[in-house]
Each structure stands twice: as structure tokens, then as C-alpha cells.
Write a structure and sequence with these properties.
With 488 residues, this protein is of the alpha/beta class. The chain has 3 domains: 93 residues, Udp-n-acetylmuramoylalanyl-d-glutamate--2,6- Diaminopimelate Ligase, Chain: A, domain 1; 225 residues, UDP-N-acetylmuramoyl-L-alanine:D-glutamate ligase; 155 residues, Alpha-Beta Complex (Protein-Tyrosine Phosphatase, Chain A). The strands form 4 sheets. Strands 9-8-7-10-6-11-12-13-14-15-16 form an 11-stranded mixed β-sheet, with helices on both faces. Strands 17-18-22-19-20-21 form a 6-stranded mixed β-sheet, with helices on both faces. A 5-stranded mixed β-sheet has the order 1-5-4-3-2. α2 links the parallel β3 and β4.
Length: 488
């Protein structure tokens, strides 16, 4: 695309560039620049993209986009804009031929449940015979090929490139986790979502959003980019959002277990191995069987059912597909063992997420309830003691350990968590090394224990200082279990 065509499509203040110069890709990361690139200088929280302009030009960038007026006076091809992030998003869509308009794009937002819903949807649609893609916490999946991502919702140019690749593989539907960070940072500004799903909103990321009201507004932003909204009205913020969207005459469906809604589930049976619930669809009652336990699993499945139905999949196909879904990897995943205990792997890393898992375990536990978890360093510190309270309330014993401490002292983080546990009991032990903690827990289990390993799940690293150290919780747990089985 020629620079003059770019200028026709964006809002700019000034420019100094050859309008006939051709460009064909865009990035805000100077390491990704090659010949014919547009480099967008974005001022981040820790780094200022303007300091990398010289590097981008050396690597062959044909155009610089910046908010800083001083670069106009220099002998470089530059466009000054009011907002670099908005410009990055818009141009990323244009240069990739607006791929979101050609896909059935379903966005999922909320504090908890996003990953599970995207993978449940992926299973339903693939069972139905559709080619699918995923973008989220566990990376991107394009026609079965997995790509590692640095963020739950990547930068806008990366999203557009991924969606374009999906189209090249004849993908029909993409299921995408939409974080609150991504809406504030304009990463999803130029995406057209067919459907938006809201799961819930609980205290999280307040180091970034500063208040629950700001956090709510960031989540709600998705639904102004969505043709259809699907909202959990059992959640207080969800109920508020549903009412606001209805008043604005937007197409919105509600779902629930407790309150009256468009799609209300009634749980009839639950165990460690699965759940059954009834649901009224098209004036007839259907029974749905899923292979994961608990109320939270029903919420995630319910949202997925509605999105699939709205997308044109019959309730019978949806129902049959769910019977064959064993579960989502790393989400209430029961690790295989011949020991007379149950070991569960889950990503729960917020007070609400942990409580939902523990409520489910509480319903089915015959023996002790044991949990191992930590809290991230340099992140919302207010949730540490709250997570400790949840663990203390539901668990007979708590093991506090390291979870992405970054530059903080992991022992100090564990001690902050322990203050919450102490409100209920003193049955806790701090073992900083996570691998050592898992080995100790498995080696000292008691009959009928349910052991929850929470927080890391499929995340393949520990963040220590500024380094991502490889880490595989499932593999560590399996080795500990096999060793214990051998020694029994």
C-alpha cells in the first residue's frame, strides 16, 4: 500500500514522507521491523517506542508513525498522529485486509472462565465440522498448529496477522479471549465481533484499572464491537451490563443458573466426574451432560451453548459434542493417578476463581481438601490475603508457594497470603520452591485427599525477576505421582 493511501485512511496532524513509497506490514516492536515496514512508536508503561525510531529506520522501516512533533522536523519519513495505539490498530486491520470481517469472531471477556469457554466452543464447532482458531491465554491455535503468545490478547498488529493466517487456512470461526487490558490499550479497537460473551467481574487487575468502575467499563467496551451480546446475569456486574445494553437497544441474551433469564440452567446431578443440567431451548427442555463438575462448569458450558446456537449449530449437535468433551486442559484437570487421592490442576489465580473451584471440591470431597498456590509479584497485592481467606475457609491444609514473583521476595508474598489463612486456622506451610512443594504434598498425601494445584496450570514458565524460567506443573506433578506409586 502506498503512503498516500494510508494518509487517506487515518487521522493525522502532520506528515513528511514520499506519498508514493510502498509499505506492506506494520509493527510497534523495532525487533520485528524489516524492509517496507511501518513502525509505530507507542509510549508504553516501561518503554517509549520513540527511542527505537533510529533502530527501526536502520532495519528498513519506510514510515514512522509517532505522536511526537519533533520528528517531523527531521529528515525521515514520518506521520504525526494524535493517538499511536488507535492508528496502529486501524492500519493493522487495513494492511491485513480486514480479516475479522470475514470470520465468525467470538470474543469472551470477564475475570474468570474465558479460556474454558473458547476451548468448549472450539470443541463444539469442530465436532460440527467447522475449521476453527483460538487466541488466548494458552496461545493461538490455527488449524491445529499452536503459536506461543506473550499476552492473553496480543497487540493489534499481531491479532490481525493471526486472523489473516486463519483465513488462509480456510478457518471459519475464531474464539478469542478479550482481556480488559486489551480494550484499554486499543488492541481490539478495529475488530468486528459477531458475538461477545461476558462471564463475570470480580476484584482483579486493580493495579492497572485503579477502580472496579474502570475495570467494568473496560470489559463493557467489547460489547460495542459485538453484533450479539451474551451476558451472565447471575453476576452483579453482568446484570448491570445486560440492563444497560438492553436500554441501548442492542441484541443481547442473558444466561443464568439462579435468576430468571433467556437461557436458565437447572443442575440435576454433579460429581467429581461430571455434571448434568436441564435447559429450555426453543420451547423444549433438553438435558445436557458434561464431563466436568461444578456450577462454574455449567456457566462456561451455558455461554458456549448459546454462542453455538446463535451461530447456527443445532442443540442436538451441541448436546452430542459436549458428551465427548473430556474437559479443558489445565482447567479443573484431574491428573491420572493410581494413588487413593485426587490431584487437580487449575489456573485459578484470583479470590473468586479459587473460591469457585473450592466450592466444587467441597461438594464432592470425602477426605481432606488440600490446596497449593501462590500470588504474582508486582501485581494487585490486595488479592493476596483474600486468596488466603478463601483457602483457609474451604481447605483443611494450605501450601503456599511461588507464582511469578518477578522482583518481589516470594517468601514475603506467601506471608501476606498466610494472613488471610490465619483468619480460619493455622494449617499452612510455606514451601517457596514450587517443584519441592508438589513433591512434598504428593509424598505426604492421606487417603481420599483432594489436592488442588492452583495458579500455574499450563503456563509454561515462572517469571523470576525479568526472566521467564521454563516450568511445567503437569509434568512435575506426574513425576511426583509416579515416584510415589513406585514407592508404595
Amino acid at each position: 500500500m502506498k503512503i498516500k493511501n494510508i494518509l487517506d485512511k487515518i487521522d493525522y496532524i502532520k506528515y513528511s514522507a514520499n506519498e508514493d513509497t510502498e509499505v506492506n506490514n506494520i509493527t510497534n516492536d523495532s525487533r520485528e521491523v524489516n524492509e517496507n515496514s511501518v513502525f509505530v512508536a507507542v509510549k508504553g508503561f516501561k518503554k517509549d517506542g520513540n527511542t527505537y525510531i533510529s533502530s527501526a529506520l536502520e532495519k528498513g522501516a519506510k514510515l514512522i508513525i509517532t505522536e511526537d512533533e519533533k520528528f517531523i522536523e527531521r529528515n525521515i519519513p514520518v506521520v504525526q498522529v494524535k493517538d499511536s495505539r488507535i492508528t496502529l490498530s486501524k492500519l493493522s486491520s487495513i494492511l491485513n485486509d480486514e480479516p475479522s470481517k470475514k470470520l465468525n469472531l467470538i470474543g469472551v471477556t470477564g475475570t474468570n472462565g474465558k479460556t474454558s469457554i473458547t476451548y468448549i466452543l472450539d470443541h463444539i464447532f469442530r465436532y460440527y465440522g467447522s475449521k476453527t482458531g483460538i487466541i488466548g491465554t494458552m496461545g493461538a491455535v490455527i488449524d491445529g498448529e499452536k503459536l506461543i503468545l506473550n499476552n492473553t490478547t496480543p497487540e493489534s498488529h499481531q491479532i490481525q496477522e493471526i486472523l489473516k493466517k486463519m483465513l488462509e487456512k480456510n478457518t471459519k470461526s475464531c474464539f478469542m479471549e478479550v482481556s480488559s487490558h486489551s480494550t484499554v490499550l486499543k488492541r481490539v479497537e478495529d475488530l468486528d465481533f459477531n458475538i461477545g460473551i461476558f462471564t463475570n467481574l470480580t476484584k482483579d487487575h486493580l493495579d492497572f484499572h485503579k477502580s472496579m468502575d474502570e475495570y467494568y467499563k473496560a470489559k463493557k467496551d467489547l460489547f460495542y464491537k459485538s453484533g450479539i451480546s451474551i451476558i451472565n446475569i447471575d453476576d452483579n456486574y453482568g446484570n448491570k451490563m445486560y440492563e444497560e445494553l438492553k436500554k441501548e437497544n442492542r441484541k443481547v441474551y442473558s444466561y443464568s443458573i439462579d435468576n430468571i433469564s433467556d437461557f436458565k440452567a437447572t443442575i440435576t446431578e454433579t460429581s467429581i466426574n461430571g455434571t448434568k443440567f436441564k435447559l429450555k431451548v426453543d420451547d423444549k427442555e433438553v438435558e445436557i451432560q458434561i464431563n466436568t463438575p461444578g456450577k462454574f462448569s455449567v456457566y462456561n458450558t451455558l455461554a458456549s451453548i448459546i454462542a453455538a446456537k446463535v451461530s447456527g449449530i443445532s442443540i442436538d449437535d451441541i448436546k452430542n459434542s459436549l458428551k465427548k468433551l473430556k474437559g479443558v486442559v489445565g482447567r479443573f484437570e484431574i491428573i491420572p493417578t493410581n494413588l487413593n487421592c485426587t490431584v487437580i490442576l487449575d489456573f485459578a489465580h484470583t479470590p473468586d476463581g479459587l473460591e469457585k473451584i473450592m466450592e466444587t471440591i467441597d461438594e464432592v470431597a470425602k477426605g481432606r481438601k488440600v490446596v497449593m498456590f501462590g500470588a504474582g509479584g508486582e501485581r494487585d497485592i490486595s488479592r493476596r490475603a483474600l486468596m488466603g481467606e478463601v483457602a483457609g475457609k474451604y481447605c483443611d491444609f494450605c501450601y503456599l508457594t511461588s507464582d511469578n514473583p518477578r522482583y518481589e521476595d516470594p517468601k514475603s508474598i506467601c506471608e501476606e497470603i498466610a494472613e488471610g489463612v490465619k483468619k480460619y486456622h493455622n494449617n499452612y506451610k510455606i514451601i517457596i520452591d514450587r517443584k519441592e512443594a508438589i513433591n512434598y504434598i504428593v509424598d505426604n498425601y492421606k487417603k481420599d485427599d483432594i489436592i488442588l494445584l492452583a495458579g500455574k496450570s499450563t503456563e509454561p514458565y515462572q517469571v523470576i525477576e525479568d526472566k521467564k524460567v521454563p516450568y511445567d506443573e503437569r509434568e512435575i506433578a506426574l513425576k511426583a505421582i509416579r515416584l510415589k506409586e513406585k514407592n508404595n
